[in-house]
Structures are given as structure tokens and as C-alpha cells.
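#lab-general

N.A. 3:47 PM
ok so I finally got the sequence cleaned up, no stray characters, all 416 residues accounted for. can someone with queue access submit it? mine expired

B.Y. 3:52 PM
send it over

N.A. 3:53 PM
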Amino acid sequence: MCELVFILPNSSLTMGHVFKACSANSVLFLHRQPLNHPEMPLLIKGCFSPSPAHQNIREFNASGTLLPLDVPNLQILDRSSLLNLIKTCGKVKNMWKVRRIHNDLLKKNLISKDAYIATSLITAYAKCGMLDMAREIFEQIPIRNVVSWNALISGYAQNGLGDEALKCFKEMQEDANVCPNGVTFVCTLKACGIVGCIDIGEVIDVEVRKQGLLQRDIMVGTALVDMYCKCGALEKAREVFSLLPAHDVVSWSALIAGYVNNGLTREALQCFKEMQDARISPDVMSYVFILKACAIQGSLDLGEDIHTEVKKRGLLQRDIVLGNALVDMYSKCGALEKARDVFEQIPMRNVVSWSALIGGYAQHGLGDEALRCFKQMQDALVRPNVVTYICVLKACGIVRSLGIGEKIDMEIRKQG
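B.Y. 4:20 PM
back already:
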């Protein structure tokens, strides 16, 4: 939890104390300095906790009484501080505070006057998943620029609304005063990948090459690779990848993920080897997809090598998706003791962790172990999903446990 506290003018705190307090998740504003003090934007930008937990923002009045206040008085903030505040509220997905700031800005008629403030609100609402509000603000901007359009297109794409993002991109093209830029193309290509719209993706590919962006902007190039992969056009994805002047871990991961998701696991493993030969250090997502390929191919040796690297880099305790991928790989390769060992090392297990282990036991005919694991999952108050039920029913079939199978049947019907 983060607290925003205004310090009284006679406070003896120094800026050093302020930053020390910030590191302990408190944000302090120094009233003994002018409210337009140059360090105030830095405090707003740098001291909010990125945790999604709601923040308490409080103010002391002149007598030292603590007053509840949901957001700082916008009249005391300069433009830079205001933009940082909106950005922070969106980052922590604090919908309630974004709405409060929005209401205050409406009273001051700032949304129609300042496109950058309006765009910041669009982005904040989009991060909170409130796309209707984002669109409403967008419609209030008298003259929209490419940044405004990008904020809305990106908002739709980031929330999985590919059709809406593409519709918005089409509207943007009809605006004679706005030309798409690299960010526009990245967001729109993401939308193409979501809905599998290769036609628009190919049109953007032509435009990107015409503008020379493929050689200048690796993010655009990677977005093209990712789009072609998600649309199942792996040869085109590889062609674009080969045209990139440099390859980073994101572009390699996009291609590896494309091969794995399209069932071309041998190609994925070969691609991973090429990545290693190029001395590109894998990130978490590279490991996750290669472990998935190892699970499908039964490549236990490579999976164990990756596990060693992951442990060396201390990633297992920091990323549950990677931990789950390791459990799944060991389970599918029949190394169930190792799967259980990794499972025990995951700090916060979720339904995917449990399902991977239960599925491993069931796949290899250990029905009793699978049902015992399912009981432990229920005791841990983790709610099963469809994959869990399928694995447990398979285990019931192995040990011929009609009673547990009937209970699960009832639960599935209850959940619809």
C-alpha cells in the first residue's frame, strides 16, 4: 500500500528524508518548498508504488489534522505533474482515481483544450479496461493527432479487442490530417494477430517496407513477425525476420513462439539453437516456449539444460509462468519426481501449476497420485479449471473411482 502525504511547511524533513521514505512506499510532498518546485514532478513520477493495490492519498491541514483526499488537488499541480499522476493511476489500474481526475478536468474544461492530457486519460482508462470511457474522451478532442489515435488503437489491442482496433485504424486512415507512424503499425499488427487478419497485416507490411521502417525500427519488424506467426504464415514470418538488420530477444522469441504455437516444434528447437549461437540471452518467454517444445518433442535433456540456466539466473522463484512450464515439461517427459520438485519450489502455485502436475501423473498411469494431488489442490482452496477436471477424470478412469468421477460430473454441471 502506498501513501501520499503532504508535509507541513515547518517540517524539518529534507529531500533526502523524502526519498528515503519513498523507498519504504510512502510518497511525501514538501510543502516548505513552492508547490511548483522542480522536484515535485519527479516525486509523483518516481515514488508511486507500481503495485496494483489501491493507494491511500492523504493530506495534513494547517493544524496537523489528517484529511482524507482521494487525489491531490489538481490546482496545485503543474502540467507535467498532472500528466505523471494520470499515468501512474493508469499504471496501477486505479479506475476510481482516474474517474475522479477526469471529473475534475471536465470542470476545468481541460480535456478539450489539451490533447496531451486527454490522450493520457485515454491511455489510463484503457489500462483499466474501460474502453467506452476512453472512446468518449477521444471523441471530445477537437483536433486529433497520431498520438491520440495510437492511444485508442493500442487500448483496444491491449485489451484483446482486435476488431475494434482495426476499425479505429480504418477511421484514422480516413483522417487526412493524420499519418500512421511506427507505433500505429505495431498496435495495428497486434490487432491483426488477435483476429487472424492477415490481409490488413500484408498491406501494413508493404507500407512499412515502402517507408524503410523494417530496417530502422526493430519493434515494427518484430510486430510483423509476430503477426505472421499468429496468422499461421510461418514462411513470411521467417522472411521478415531475416530482413531485420539486427535481432534481439523479442524478435527471436516471437519466431520461436510462432513455430511452437503452429506445431512446428523441431523448427522451434532449431531456432532456439540459432539464437544461442548468436549469443542472445533468452528471456522468460523464450524459455517458456522452448520448454513447451521440449514437452511435445520429449526432449528431456534440453529441458534439463534450460532448468539449470533458469536456476542459475534465479528466475524460478520470480516467475510462475516459467515454473509452470518446467513442471509441465518434466511431467510430459515422464520425470515426475523432478516435476514435483520444481512444483514444490514455486512460491505461489495457481491452477495451472496444479493441473500440470495432476496431468503428468494421469498421463503416466499414476491415478492414485493424481487424485491425491487433486485433494491437496482442493485443500489449498485452488479452484479447478476445465484442464484440471479432464486430468482428474482420466485419473478416475485409471483407478476406477466412480464416486470421485460422479462428484466432478456434478460440479461441472453446476458450473455450466
